[in-house]
Every structure is written in structure tokens, then in C-alpha cells.
């Protein structure tokens, strides 16, 4: 076939690109007759799932940019039993927090804006005046946050919520997030479990502490706070508590919440299905 694209060279295009306009699909990848080389598909980078968002700091009124998850880009995987969200190629939990590079105010996005003046005062005096340096630097380009940096920020957020006398649910949710991050870090390290044995053991110890704190905090919050709690309705919190109790080996306690969810008139079908699955696991454990 003659060059059907002749004349395109003056636009800088390759006239030889098309040898056969309607060639078989399988050979279309070798326009110049080169042998097909199986090209490894590179996995997407973590930054592909992020974008920079401008945030206004409620403490110092400065604005800064922080990486957040692009909506709809990352593919959601089945969450863990205790509802830890999981996505392909990225742990979104790392990006659920913002830290002002000017004054150092650090909080989960959910708790970042709209601070009551009394809380702002407590945070300034109890946290920001004590910080040696803001924990996060100003950024202009997308950067991946490591597990360690994310965990540090969440710990500062937890410290901040203690200082501002936050609700138990806020503190419990922050502990849960830290535990989830540690779980993610352990998963990452487990790729080479033998080499990372000591670090994994240290993470596991921290994990147990934060997970138990989160559980105790939510149990306390349930008896004193209204729903939604940390953004979750009652059936979601019940399922979370049941799953956490299960993970902590408190099967009888978990069972109570699961039974309640199964007969609940308000819980959605997704929650009910998960409650049924959890019930099977509990029955299995109680048999032993
Ligand atoms: Zn600030």
C-alpha cells in the first residue's frame, strides 16, 4: 500500500505510521514491522491518585496546599473487617490529614476547619507555641507521604484533640486511623518479613496500643455522644465496634452488636451483609 498519510511530514508527523490502515489488531502494535516486545505495564504511581488542594488554616488564616485523593480515580478494594478503606496502589488513610506549614496546626480534614475560638486558644497555647517547627513543610508539587510522616502527623492531631478537649469519638477515630496506618505499614513491610522482623514487631506493639485505645474510646463515646459520630451513623459504629471486638478476641461482646444489626430496621443491606459475615466468623471462634 502506498503511503496514505503522505503530506503529513510537514506537520512533523510520521508518514510511515500506517502501513495497513485496517491491519489485524494483534499486529497493530508494531507499525514499522518491528517484532512485538511484551512491554511490562508499569503500575501507576501513588501521585497519580493525588491532587493538591488549597486549604485555609483556621488558626493563622494562612493558606497552604496539601495532597488529597482525586475522587473516583483509585479503585476501591473490599474494606477490612473493621471497615478500613482499601484501594489499589494507594493507602488513602495517609492523606486524610492536613498540617499548616506556617503555624503547625494539624488535624484530620474532618476536624480541620471551623474551630470555636475557645478551641483555637487552647490549641495555640497548648500545642502550637510548644512546637519547635511546623511538622509539615510548604509544598508546591505533589509529594507522596510516607507511613512514618503520616503517623507523626496523626499523633500530633491526637495530641491536639486532647489539648482542645475533643469528644471521645474524635480521639477514638484518630487512634483508629493511626492503627490502620500501622496495619498498612506492616503490610508493606511484610513483603520482606524476614528482613523487617524487628520493625514489624515494634509496629505491631504500637498497633495493639492504638487499636485498644480506639476501641475503648468508641465504647465510651457510644454511651455519651449522639450520632453521627465521627461522621458515622449508629449502625456503622455498631458494625465497627463489633468488628473491633472480634479482632480483640471479645467474641461475646461482638456478638451482641452483630445480633442487633441483623434484626435492625434501620441498618442498610451492606451493613447487614457484613454483620452476617461477621456472625459466621464469631460462631466459628466460639465453637473452638
Ligand atoms: Zn496555620
Tell me briefly what this model is.
This protein has 288 residues and is mainly alpha-helical.
Distance between the termini: 74 Å
The helix content is 40-55%
Estimated structural class: mainly alpha
Bound molecules: zinc ion
The stretches of 5 or more residues where confidence is low (pLDDT under 50) are: none
Overall mean confidence score, pLDDT: 91
Number of continuous helical runs? 8
Q: What overall geometry do the principal axes of the alpha carbons give?
A: globular
Radius of gyration: 25 Å
Largest β-sheet summary? 2 strands, antiparallel
Q: Please provide the ordered H/E string of secondary-structure elements.
A: EEEEEEHHHHHHHH
State the total count of DSSP E strands: 6
Work out the strand percent: 5-15%
Which strand order does the major sheet show?
1-2
Amino acid at each position: 500500500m502506498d503511503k496514505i498519510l503522505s503530506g503529513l511530514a510537514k506537520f512533523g508527523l510520521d508518514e510511515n505510521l500506517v502501513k495497513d490502515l485496517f491491519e489485524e489488531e494483534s499486529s497493530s502494535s508494531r507499525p514499522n514491522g518491528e517484532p512485538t516486545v511484551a512491554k511490562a505495564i508499569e503500575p501507576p504511581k501513588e501521585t497519580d491518585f493525588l491532587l493538591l488542594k488549597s486549604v485555609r488554616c483556621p488558626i493563622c488564616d494562612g493558606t497552604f496546599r496539601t495532597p488529597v485523593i482525586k475522587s473516583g480515580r483509585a479503585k476501591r478494594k473490599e474494606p477490612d473487617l473493621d471497615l478500613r478503606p482499601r484501594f489499589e496502589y494507594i493507602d488513602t488513610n495517609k492523606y486524610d490529614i492536613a498540617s499548616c506549614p506556617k503555624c503547625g496546626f494539624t488535624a484530620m480534614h474532618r476536624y480541620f476547619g471551623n474551630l470555636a475560638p475557645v478551641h483555637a486558644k487552647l490549641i495555640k497555647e497548648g500545642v502550637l507555641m510548644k512546637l519547635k517547627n511546623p511538622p509539615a513543610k510548604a509544598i508546591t508539587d505533589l509529594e507522596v507521604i510516607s507511613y512514618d510522616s503520616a503517623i507523626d502527623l496523626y499523633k500530633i492531631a491526637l495530641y491536639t484533640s486532647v489539648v482542645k478537649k475533643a469528644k471521645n469519638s474524635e480521639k477514638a477515630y484518630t487512634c483508629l486511623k493511626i492503627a490502620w496506618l500501622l496495619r498498612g505499614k506492616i503490610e508493606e513491610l511484610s513483603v520482606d518479613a524476614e528482613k523487617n522482623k524487628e520493625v514489624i514487631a515494634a509496629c505491631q506493639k504500637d498497633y495493639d496500643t492504638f487499636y485498644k485505645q480506639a476501641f475503648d474510646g468508641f465504647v465510651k463515646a457510644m454511651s455519651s455522644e449522639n450520632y453521627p459520630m465521627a461522621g458515622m451513623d449508629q449502625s456503622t459504629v455498631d458494625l465497627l465496634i463489633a468488628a473491633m471486638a472480634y479482632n480483640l478476641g471479645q467474641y461475646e461482646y461482638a456478638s451482641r452488636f452483630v445480633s442487633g444489626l441483623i434484626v435492625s430496621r434501620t441498618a442498610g443491606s451492606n451493613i447487614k451483609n457484613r454483620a452476617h459475615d461477621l456472625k459466621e466468623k464469631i460462631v466459628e471462634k466460639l465453637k473452638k
